[in-house]
Design a protein that fits this description.
mainly alpha; 68% helix
Length: 444
């Protein structure tokens, strides 16, 4: 049983939210299926405020064009250290970004936004290490059952300490001024990050729900105080879309506890943030890409990914997602070229030590869908040629390559691949498939 809260106690945003969560739990007891679907959507609402690939989330990124009177922490935008740190962050150079955000926090120890910067970057680095940044999982509803590598206990403890540090500063400021826009916004960011942590690291879905709802409430309050505070529309817009996407029966249940929203309003808010060129514009573009993909509006989503790929050339996930969207949109030839380009850039060390080999996996899956078994096998073999392939991707690629060899009547090569899968990790679903294929050759 997953613990209800990663800290061992409730971190509900307010008594009303805590009571609503309790009422929701009671109301769902009679319908386990409905409960599962609701938690499923709630978890997605916590996740979708994050980037579907680089997952930068609500960390108040700098505005290269200058500060905005309706953006969070506008004074930070003029700090070269913050700008440099976020450039490294979006290029997935997490280690150096962390070093720079630590320096910034040392200079501004009483600023909760400085804590949130560091919190976000450490969390994103750990999620990447865990293998929890595959956009395909967030494009459908399978991610809730996905198991990834376990988190580093030391990193988990540091994340919890940073959450507590940020909350302490935010609560102190809100006691002095309950309508402090900056403090409300910062608290919403902290809660959104903790929702992500509890969902993907602790797998504590109700804790994620409480904090996701708390983040929305905080940013809705920001918009009540200042309707032109565009950055706050990222969380609110995201939640509107998710609530609007829930099945009717679940919408009725969440309406009983005061949650509602429409997809149209959600997309409108997110477009406003994306078009603002403000602090959260990058995040909004990625969230929009996630939602537009779910709506099968692939060309619109791809435009955002293309823009970000050019802006952050060190981040392989942006062009990789562009390739995925080309494939989903029916542009197979262009998608294959895009996968090959990501692979070649990785071979030329343009992505450092990042796991660009997933591009070869994507190419292999594309060619497999076209019945090009030889081409698919060749692409899948490339995964193992990368310097430090992700173990999960490598095992799946070896299994798939074995299946291609079976289809090509190359049984000896197929069996060798299945044996390699077992040697890598005998306790995984791909390993179980490999055992089946050793007993009997794979057939489509």
């Amino acid at each position: 049983m997953v613990p209800d809260d990663a800290f061992g106690s409730s971190r509900a945003p307010a008594n009303s939210v805590r009571l609503n969560s309790k009422a929701l739990t009671v109301g769902m007891r009679a319908s386990p299926t409905l409960l599962q679907r609701l938690v499923h959507g709630s978890a997605l609402s916590a996740l979708a405020v994050l980037c579907l690939m680089s997952l930068p989330a609500l960390a108040q990124a700098p505005n290269a064009s200058g500060s905005s009177p309706h953006s969070a922490a506008a004074s930070q935008q003029r700090d070269p250290l913050v700008e440099a740190a976020f450039d490294r962050f979006y290029n997935m150079d997490y280690d150096r970004a962390i070093q720079e955000f630590e320096k910034f926090l040392d200079r501004h120890p009483s600023d909760p936004s400085a804590v949130n910067h560091l919190l976000t970057t450490i969390l994103m680095r750990e999620l990447y290490r865990m293998g929890a940044m595959n956009s395909g999982e967030y494009a459908n509803d399978s991610f809730i059952g996905q198991a990834h590598r376990t988190a580093d206990p030391k990193v988990k403890e540091r994340i919890k300490r940073l959450v507590e540090q940020a909350e302490g500063l935010e609560d102190q400021q809100l006691k002095a001024n309950p309508d402090s826009i900056d403090a409300l916004y910062a608290r919403g960011v902290t809660r959104a990050q903790f929702a992500l942590y509890t969902a993907l690291v602790e797998r504590a879905w109700f804790s994620a729900l409480r904090n996701a709802v708390g983040a929305r409430r905080d940013h809705e309050r920001v918009l009540e105080l200042d309707p032109n505070y565009v950055d706050a529309k990222l969380v609110v817009g995201t939640h509107n879309y998710v609530m609007g996407s829930l099945p009717w029966s679940v919408k009725v249940a969440v309406a009983l506890v005061g949650l509602s929203g429409t997809k149209e309003k959600g997309l409108e808010y997110l477009h406003q943030v994306a078009d603002s060129n403000g602090e959260n514009s990058v995040d909004a573009k990625v969230v929009l890409s996630l939602f537009l993909r779910r709506e099968h509006r692939y060309d619109e989503a791809r435009a955002f990914m293309h823009d970000l790929a050019e802006r952050y050339p060190g981040n392989y996930l942006f062009p990789l997602e562009e390739a995925n969207l080309l494939r989903s949109g029916g542009h197979a030839q262009e998608a294959a070229a895009a996968y090959r380009k990501v692979w070649q850039n990785g071979r030329e060390e343009k992505y450092g030590n990042l796991h660009y080999e997933i591009a070869a996996w994507g190419l292999g899956e594309l060619l497999r869908s076209q019945k090009d078994h030889a081409g698919a096998a060749a692409a899948l073999e490339l995964v193992g040629e990368s310097p430090n392939p992700d173990p999960e991707i490598l095992q799946k690629a070896n299994l798939a390559a074995g299946e291609m060899y079976d289809l090509m009547q190359k049984r000896d090569l197929a069996v060798k691949k299945y044996q390699t899968v077992l040697a890598e990790n005998a306790g995984t679903p791909p390993a179980e498939k490999a055992r089946e294929h050793i007993r009997e050759a794979y057939r489509e």
